[in-house]
Amino acid sequence: MMADLKIASIGGSTNQAGHNLVPRNEAMPLDLGWVRDVRVNLSGVERRAATLPGRRTVKKDAQAAWLLKAITCIDLTTLSGDDTRQRVERLCAKAKAPVRPDLLDALGMADRHLTTGAVCVYHRFVKTAVAALAGSGIPVAAVSTGFPAGLIPHDLKLKEIEASVRDGAAEIDIVITREHVLTGNWQALYDEMRDFRMACGDAHVKAILATGDIKTLRNVARASLVCMMAGADFIKTSTGKEGVNATLPVTLVMLRMIRAYQERTGFKVGYKPAGGISAAKDVLNYQIMMKEELGREWLEPHLFRIGASSLLADIERQLEHHVTGRYSAFNRHAVG
To answer: Would the keyword 4Fe-4S be found if you checked this record's keyword annotation (predicted)?
Structure first.
């Protein structure tokens, strides 16, 4: 059983996602020898990922605690073509109060300031989100660099990052140029990522690898490593717009690279799965893998985020079942 998280231990929001809790990744020179030496045991990865749900489980109070912790790590997201200011404001209201007060009271959490880890929006809505979240301690994350394809000119990517930072974004989710990975041009990927990191200034940068587009787990491992060498604060699976987004095999490979990078440099890099994580039972698998591979600290929002929109509704629904013994309709747990 993985029952070492208790409801009483779940803290409230961490101001600006606790960015000051770990030294920032200061990057390192590109080590092509290390990158080229990376290998992935495909059958081993698939076996570990496939057997995880059957070998590890949490139930009852422990499950409620893990789900409450997951809420604090959610980047509550809206990235639709029909987004409006009103939708973003509703999303921010939900981020500040993600669980119904009656459920928090029944769980003994009424006195905790429980919030999501961040709100993630397009650049157009950064100012709207910053204003709506003022005083809450919840950071705004902006997707940038020509999200989701990342195929606009490089100088425009940098200008977009700088504009979002000026508007108040504390985190920038960038998309890499997939071509650099697919052609093995690691120097170009490193240089691009270094430029993104510099343009972000004090804002933390999450590097989206678009793992569904870069084809192989070895590419995933090498791209993860290069982005960390160039100063990424987080590595992230997907934009949520690819045909295949976050998966447990991809997660395992990325976590192993985070561990290898930490062992060599001493820097802790965060991880963000995104796209397709919509059920509470799925997020538990990601949390368990995080803890087993990297340790307890990687269950906190300064090192773990989940890019999601509908996930919060299912978590709240599961918490209501824990309290009442009954499931309710999803429309009673609307995101915003």
So the answer is: no
